[in-house]
Amino acid sequence: MPLISYGRAMARHAERHPERVAIVHEDRAIAFGELARRADRLARAYRALGVGPGDLVTLALPNSIEFFEAALATWKLGATPQPVSSRLPELERRAIVELAKPALVVGAPEGERYAYPSVPVGFDPGEPGAEDEPLEDVVPPCVRAMTSGGSTGRPKLIVDLVPAQCDPDAGENGMAPDGTTLVPGPLYHAGPFMTSWSQLLCGGRVVLMTRFDPRESLALIERHRVDWVLFVPTMMQRIWRLPAAERERFDLSSLRRVMCTGAPSPAWLKRGWIEWLGPERIYEAYGGTERTGGTMISGTEWLAHPGSVGRPTAGRKIRVLRPDGSECDPGEVGEVFMMPPGGQGSTYRYVGAEPTATSDGWETLGDMGWLDAEGFLYLADRKTDMIVTGGANVYPAEVEAALDAHPAVRSSAVIGLPDDDLGLRVHALVDAPRAVSESELREHLAKHLVRYKIPRSFEFVSEPLRDDAGKVRRSALRDARVKPA
Questions:
Q1: Whole-model pTM?
Q2: What percent of the chain clears pLDDT 70, i.e. is strictly above it?
Q3: Most Cβ neighbours (<10 Å): which of 57, 118, 136, 402?
Q4: 230, 192 in Cβ contact below 8 A?
Q5: What is the pLDDT of residue 431?
Q6: Which uninterrupted H or E stretch holds 312?
Q7: First CA to last CA across the chain, in angstroms?
Q8: For helices 267-277 and 233-240, angle between their N-to-C axes, nearest 10 degrees
């Protein structure tokens, strides 16, 4: 059928199946009919506060049903949701709001004032009245505006240039209209945001976690017969670290697809999941919120190309270039550049940054990698995170994957610190709930890495080094340990 607006698509599901559960969050569930009614009331309230077509609406809400209601209300007015973490410090939140210049801030903490209208968490627009006229159907010109700090730490907005419209009878990425998707990650990140709405917009159900927990995620898959889930490697690792008897006692037979994205998945971890659930259920995707490029690989393909993140999808193109701009040979590491089918500028625009591109419009997210002879992409690391130590290149992601393979390690981060002799020394931060010695880690790493890649120094920490979306900010970790000159 022809594409229709997100607002109309959700209204159609509410008309067809008003009592069908749309979202489950903790001990609460909401049906499509109620979700549509609540979003309509919010939309009228937002409109009264000045929100209109083409505006941005900042959503500073935690994972909740309220988040979905607010996003849908925003789309119903032709505006664009701009999610941010509800746990940001005030200064960071203010910097993003000033960059976005939104028509409305939803979820502003008590006492926090902006130059723009705002409503708090739990905002109640009240019950509908007789004066409430129907909302005009409108297609928002931009589906979302996600926030990213990138490698610089300075905020930027990535405004998706695709209109907020869809075919409500067609699922995406293997999702079924009668399917159930588990969303364990934060909705202010692109992956969980897009995954959850892809399932809802085709009439399926979302099971939302407030925060990821490995045991609870398996229990929810069993309880709700989840068939689709998006994990980041950190989540998959924490599930894998559960005792085998505990991990295997859950019934996961309903799962059709486990998608991994957000960071490169260590080969040992991917192989373990493939052996556990079968290659036909395990997938990995790579790409940025910018959608300039993207790849996907199934577990079956991965077994033939271990370590790869797949080949380009949907007409996208990928090149790997040397510093002089020439194309790398198969197997040669260089910087990964991408081109969407519609050409440069067809998928997004930045607010607060400029793209890094070649003179002919190929853009890069700053990742290093290589292509094999069959066109499968392999990632090394972020260009800005690469450590040159004693003249040799060390990619932190490779060292972290080896560290994380040790059963005592929950998470790790590898950075380069100044060294008079080497220029930079490889330094490892290790989050290990179970006691492990530096010598034991060195012995373990010697089985996986050449000598110069083994960290020269170790630092043990007591908190996870990656956030709920599996991201680690190595630049911030470096800055905290390097004194200004």
A1: 0.85
A2: 97
A3: 57
A4: yes
A5: 94
A6: strand 311-312
A7: 62
A8: 60
Non-local CB neighbours of 202 within 8 Å, separated by 6+ positions: 166, 168, 169, 170, 171, 172, 175, 176, 177
Domains, the chain, with CATH or none: 4-168 (3.40.50.12780), 264-383 (2.30.38.10), 386-481 (3.30.300.30)
pLDDT tier for residue 149 given thresholds of 50, 70 and 90: low
Q: Where are the beta strands (DSSP E) in 315-472?
A: 317-321, 334-339, 348-351, 356-357, 363-371, 377-382, 387-389, 392-394, 411-419, 423-431, 457-461
Question: Percentage of residues in the chain with pLDDT exceeding 90?
Answer: 76
Distance CA 43, CA 38 (A): 9
Which residue in this structure is represented by tokens 């049906």? 31
State the amino acid at position 438 in one-letter form: E
Structure tokens, 472 = 């680690």
Other CB atoms within 10 Å distance of the CB of residue 292:
26
Using the predicted structure, report yes or no on whether residue 422 has a pLDDT greater than 90: no
3-state SS assignment for residue 201? helix
CB 377 within 8 A of CB 308: yes
Q: Which helix (H) or strand (E) holds 224?
A: helix 214-224
pLDDT surpassing 80 at residue 468: no
Neighbours of 48 (CB within 10 A): 10
